[in-house]
């Protein structure tokens, strides 16, 4: 097979893109690319069935897996025994240092929703992880403040991009390679032994899985990669994000497929809501109120998290809670109110049996840790809480129509503003963006865009009177664009206008918006030219 690196070579990128590492990526592609494509075809066929009114259900053909009480996942790996606080963020240099020093037990180094997939971000992120494990990473900001690693560091867990994405900076036989394989393969190749030497291991978060066959593909990749790199089987561990509605019906099967390599499940709340809208948004029973009203206590979200904890603990797996996205403010009153909500959310999770939870900012680590400390004490987890009393049906998971709340003018404006500001920042190369004291990423931006489409498609009434119309959406978008463009230079104004065009064409289009990171908008991230290598 012939490969070519067409992403430009920056300083030290040759340390990541070595001939041996690229050979490993090409070998992974050769073994697994066809299965990936077939599974993406399965996704599209399933979505087509949903468009005709079919709804998901627990699989009759895998009832034997669910009914068998004897199987368990592998015991927790070194560095993953205690996961009471996990912090997430992109593997930028400053974030790498701050996350590892944050006091969290785990850092999710996120190449997915929190990273705009520019070539520099992808390869530079890998370099930052290598430097962090070698303890040779530091950073000095424009004000002269220096950041360096402390003594006690969080365990690194890498989230590669999802199966639906490709990396255009590396092509094999003229086609772009799977972004999942690039992020996974480069990290495993360069950092597996670095992690083992540090007393941990190569650990991953698996995003956007839609069924257990996709988990099986990952497991087969793990087995193959460990054999190729002469790592003991079971060295790799992976936590699967349950962030699609179809995966919610296959939690046990996903754990079963990955059982030798599984580190548990995570409740990826924002993408889960997006998945509901993406799959069923054309049906009036699935119209959701303002995003702020779709809390973890509404019936369909409550069913999903209760089932996740029960499933995990029944199989000896960690259950990790959802994201606290608040970004601390300089306003004491704003902080007090927001931290009270964060604390209540984490108390719910700890009380339900979760073994830990996510935060988006180092300033939230103490709050989350305090809540889980109160429940766990010196114990590393609460796997002993089996939650046998929980019984969740397919109807419970799909009870979206029982969600209380309304669609308001402020909710509509907020969605338009978040989508516009986030995509503007994403086009500028930022994947995690603090907006109005919340850390927004691709998942929340997707909810925002899809909700606008859904409300417009259904002519949803507004609480204040009137309804969501295309004229109203255009007018609000124009107002937000004007405010965003004020005081900017020509290039930044054009970027904002480009973001507005993306929001408008998806919100007002006939079809539900596709992920803006899939193909259609990836071209906006800039050219990937200049060849590096050739043949294999």
UniProtKB/TrEMBL annotation:
Q: Which Pfam families match?
A: MS_C, MS_N, MS_TIM-barrel
Limits of the Malate synthase C-terminal domain: 407-522
Task: Report the catalytic activity.
Answer: glyoxylate + acetyl-CoA + H2O = (S)-malate + CoA + H(+)
Can you tell which superkingdom this protein's organism belongs to? Bacteria
Q: Give the Malate synthase TIM barrel domain ranges.
A: 155-399
Instruction: List, alphabetically, the PROSITE patterns matched.
Output: MALATE_SYNTHASE
| GO molecular function annotation | malate synthase activity
What are the entry keywords?
Glyoxylate bypass, Transferase, Tricarboxylic acid cycle
Task: Enumerate the active-site residues.
Answer: 159, 441
A Gene Ontology annotation in the biological process aspect, one of them, is: glyoxylate cycle
Q: What is its EC number?
A: 2.3.3.9
Domain Malate synthase N-terminal: start-end pairs: 3-62
Which PANTHER family did the record assign?
MALATE SYNTHASE (PTHR42902), MALATE SYNTHASE 1-RELATED (PTHR42902:SF1)
Protein's recorded name: Malate synthase
